[in-house]
Amino acid sequence: MKLDYPIYCAGEFVTTAQELPVVFPYNGEVATKTYLAGAEELEKATVAGLAAEGVMKNLPAYTRSETLFHIAKRLAERKEKFAEAMVTEVGKPLFYARIEVDRAIQTFADGAEEAKRIYGEWMALDRAVSGEKHEAVVRRFPVGLVAAIAPFNFPLNLVAHKLAPAIAAGCPIILKPASKTPLSALLLAELVAETNLPKGAVSVLPMDRATGDKLVTDERFKLLTFTGSPSVGWDMKARAGKKKIVLELGGNAAGIIAKTADVKKHLKKIVGASFGQSGQSCIHTQRIFVHESQKEEFYAAFVEEAKKITFADPREEMTMFASMIDEANAHRIDGWVKESVADGAVVLAGGQRLSKTGYAPTILTRTDREMKVCAEEAFAPVVVLENYTDFKDAVARVNDSKFGLQTGVFTNDLAEVTYAFENLEVGGVIINNVSSFRADTMPYGGVKDSGAGREGVRYAIEDMTERRVLVINKN
Mean of the pLDDT values across residues 280-298? Predict the structure, then answer.
């Protein structure tokens, strides 16, 4: 681990007068440091990004593709270094950190492929008399300078989901990583610096909220892509002006265990989706609705598996469960659980702090829809179990939420598969797998308070480009 990490501003690695310590969440110790960009650095990056728009727009597809393949290749070569960075900044267990590096490699590789697939179309216009002997060509053009704000929980792959489509589309981008987890993004900047992209094509700037807010309000940015909390995201949308907006926000994702589900087959993956990465994922399984015929078996098996989970140092090879991002979030979820118990909920497992930043895998039942552990995004290792008798009622209870990101449905009944797909108010319905399943090529995003727009490189490129039509009069 380096002693410090310079920030990446308009093609140059620089330091500033304002240091940003990076804390290892597991023990609260300062592990390294980087720097905060101020108004001067942001302005320099913005001017350079605007200057790079023309060059980026005219880069041939093969150049954009080769650039992204280079980043993917170098990321694979430095896999352990990136994994170590995530363990340090997030407290993410090494096992999960390595998986995230693999996913980021694939995301950049997907970007390299999609850079060569930004197609247009030819149209005949003679469907109407006025269009006789006219035809049109439709092409996609990059929108211009992109502002991107990434969250702490997946500090490498969710950054990749901003950078890869921007480069593939030919858009300059200024990225603000989460202040708690800037290391992975700055390491990626080192790989970008190895390429022949123009200065200003990519800047990676940790910033305080006041400085970063200019990414939202500055009209020189043509698109804002934000991944984070709903309250912050929707406020940004209200203040973003005329720029395009992509929001990937939170959720209280559900799972439905149907009458025909094979509980034994899927149990371990459901437990993993519930408590993996300490529940700090917007599609972590938070609410599980179990058919009454499965209740006794599933509840007992789920609780037994949860109680086997041990809290340990994320740097250890065998660790699967470690700390939350900070003490404040551990304190918050402890308060939510105690509040729900005071209102009648029953704790089946966990329900207590393990350290300043550690919280036990917790299972609750007999909850009420108004409780925070049900209605809000827990973003913690807390799961609610409830039972149902009718599949349609289970779907309705999933929908009884302000969120709508993804739902895992475990069933072997085709009619239930069809009903779930047609009636669940979510961005993704996952059959016989967990709500936290995400293939990085698929369209990913939510409805209602869970966001607007979709990620997945191909789908992000659609937002980062605009259609333009050329009409030709052949008369």
Answer: 97
Both 18 and 137 in one domain: the answer is: yes
The answer to whether the pTM exceeds 0.90 is yes
142 with 27, same domain: the answer is yes
DSSP code for 445 = -
Amino acid at site 20? L
Question: Which residue out of 282, 305, 386, 416 is catalytically annotated?
Answer: 282
pLDDT in tens, 313-327: 999 999 999 999 999
Task: Please answer whether residues 56 and 29 qualify as being in contact, where contact means their C-beta atoms are separated by less than 8 angstroms.
Answer: no
Q: Render pLDDT for 80-123 as a digit per residue (tens, 0 to 9).
A: 999 999 999 999 999 999 999 999 999 999 999 999 999 999 99
- Residue 374 designated active-site: no
The answer to whether 124 and 418 have CB atoms below 8 angstroms apart is no
Edge-first strand order for the sheet with 465-473 is 121-124, 134-142, 465-473
Confirm if 425 and 397 have CB atoms less than 8 A apart: no
Task: Give every CB contact of residue 432 below 8 A, 6+ residues apart in sequence.
Answer: 261, 266, 409, 410, 411, 412
Q: Based on the domain organization, do 48 and 166 belong to the same domain?
A: yes
Q: Is 455 among the catalytic positions?
A: no
Is 361 found in the same domain as 326?
yes
* Separation of alpha carbons 132 and 372, rounded Å: 61
d(C-alpha 408, C-alpha 283), whole Å? 10
Write down the residue that tokens 């023309």 correspond to. 54
CATH number at 167 reads 3.40.605.10
Binned at pLDDT 50, 70 and 90, residue 168 comes out as: very high
**Helix axis angle, 61-77 to 183-192, nearest 10°:** 130
Asked if residue 2 belongs to a domain, the reply is no
Residues 142 and 53 in one domain: yes
Q: What is the pLDDT of residues 119-130, one digit of tens each?
A: 999 999 999 999
Alpha-carbon span 172 to 58, nearest angstrom: 12
319 and 184 within one domain:
no
- Cβ atoms of 25 and 139 within 8 Å: the answer is no
Q: How far apart (Å, rounded) are the C-alpha atoms in residues 181 and 273? A: 22
Catalytic residue (choose from 41, 84, 114, 248): 248
Residue 1 inside a domain? The answer is no
177: in domain? yes
Q: For 423-440, what is each residue's pLDDT tens digit? A: 999 999 999 999 999 999
Closest CA to 401 of 250, 180, 215, 223: 250
Number of domains in the chain: 2
- State the residue range of the domain holding 263: 254-439
